[in-house]
Write a structure and sequence with these properties.
Chains A, B, C, D, E, F: This is Alkylhydroperoxidase. By secondary structure, chain A is mainly α. Chain A has six helices and no strands. The radius of gyration of chain A is 15 Å and the shape is globular. The relative contact order of chain A is 0.12.
């Protein structure tokens, strides 16, 4: 789908997609910290697709289970009970990632 | 104002205020990382008072200027141009914090 | 300002303003309950002007201080810490209303 | 899923879940009124899972069909046409609840 | 479903649904421009059902593919990466509309 | 303030600011239509600074008073009564623009 959108050659959309990737590259903050920032932002804005993306990226960056739960707990406090359904799905995604990691080990 | 609200003895509000403090205590993640999470969540939800609070806490925890700007950049990418007025005020607050730190040195 | 807007004779805006008034009229639910619904909706959506409006209307409808705090506590749980600055201003407005009521007594 | 999350023993998340339950207990406001407040807050924040939860709780507390529609109408006025898809699903859930009540009678 | 809701005879809901239709009628602005306004508003508020509705209406009003993408690009810039999953589904809906138009030609 | 932020040389922020400008350049849609899209998006997301910016830009692009009110009416229908305080300030800003235009004539 991204290929289809980028193939449209809309300058603003294409540059935005590129910039979206650049924002999470390591710098003064590590890639791992930036993915946690992306995760908490996605949680309080309640976007399941974005949460799933950052959960997977966090797993790839070696984030621990406790770090995920502490990040989710901040999103819960900031965003309130309205984020609970998304927090549940985030935990579900995280458990999937852990299962895959164990299957590969 | 917080004292006035807590003095009301509403169990839910008082426990929430207490829990809000606990969420940012160090654990698997450092206090500093948690404040950055609080900052980016406040930025994408566009709450100036919350942004100011976390900017001040970040300064107290020794966050660097580059780390602040990278955190703000993720909030900007996730939240879009609608966060720009809040990003401007965040930078203004951060500059105040740096000036105060220099005046104290 | 409302007069100026209504004088513009934009059919959609004028009918919406009229409908906005109708929604809070008593029916199966009392006017008082409807104002509490308007208050909690305004709190979780974090609109200070709307909160002030419904706080004043609640005071006019004889809502008690405990009822206000319980309504605010539900808004706080649902909406999270991001509503705290608005909750503070709501309490401030409510205290103003109580002082005016006492001054008139 | 809740058991799995609570079993994680994250203090902030566990206390929040507990507090979320306490917020809807009867006090100065009845349980029924508090569920209506939860419903309208969920509607304007557009969370289908939360709406379903409060619709079911409202049915359990004996809320009438007219009271539900008046609550939804306030959510619609406050939140605008963007809540219409959620209002439709809320009515669908409510109709399910009524059918179950009739099947049990 | 709309018939079922309208049959309930809740004055506020019924008048709102009527007004919602009136808002997109041609006036100083064309129907086409108004549908683009409805589309961008739905995109930044991230409501898939509303986006689908306005995408279909835009196709009916003869909006071009480039006009759709430029509208989506403004929604993306204003609303940030959090709208990307909805932008993807919007493009998917638009492609469906184009396919149907070609099948009918 | 923008100069201060851009001087920071954060690649993501600087490119985003540049892209934000590009999004409103004329293309398949006119600059005027794009400014109306920016206005309605800012209204439903309830950002006064963004609304003011697009109101001024609309005035510069020769948008008529009726076109502004029709755009605001769509924002009101989509976003609900919660946008009313922002709609009032938008009308206020528009009236300022018209007065300035008349003073210059």
């Amino acid at each position: 789908m991204n290929t289809r959108i980028l193939g449209e050659n809309n300058l603003v959309i294409n540059r935005f997609f590129n910039l979206d990737g650049r924002a999470y590259e390591g710098g003064a903050l590590s890639v791992k910290t930036k993915e946690l920032l992306g995760l908490v932002a996605s949680l309080v804005l309640r976007c399941d697709d974005c949460i799933t993306y950052h959960i997977v990226r966090c797993a790839e960056e070696g984030v621990s289970r406790d770090e995920i739960f502490e990040t989710l707990s901040i999103g819960l406090i900031v965003g309130g009970s309205i984020v609970i359904p998304h927090l549940r799905r985030a935990v579900d995604r995280w458990d999937d990632c852990e299962r895959m990691r164990q299957a590969q080990a």
